[in-house]
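Researcher: Here's a chain I'd like modeled. Treat it as a single chain, no partners, no ligands.
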Amino acid sequence: MLEMRKNVPPSSSPLTRMEQVERMCDSICLINKGRNVLDGELRAIKQSYGKNTLHIEFTGNDAFLQHPAITSMTRLGNGVEIKLKPAPTRKRS
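Model: Modeled as a single isolated chain. Structure tokens:
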């Protein structure tokens, strides 16, 4: 993988799994339907979104968005970006 990083031009890299991207890239550009939707340094992008952020595309009933674990929501076309409450910390005995 790391050898591939040196030899594959970024614009032609066929990667789709984020864990592979994270090992190989310092910066990313995400394109959806020919439009740049997110770009920049990977570390800065991850910090800005946090660990409890999800982007979900769906059709149909949106009743699941009333779940008590969801702290905030932004509608985005046929999807939503939601932020979840942090998981409760467990006390060690």
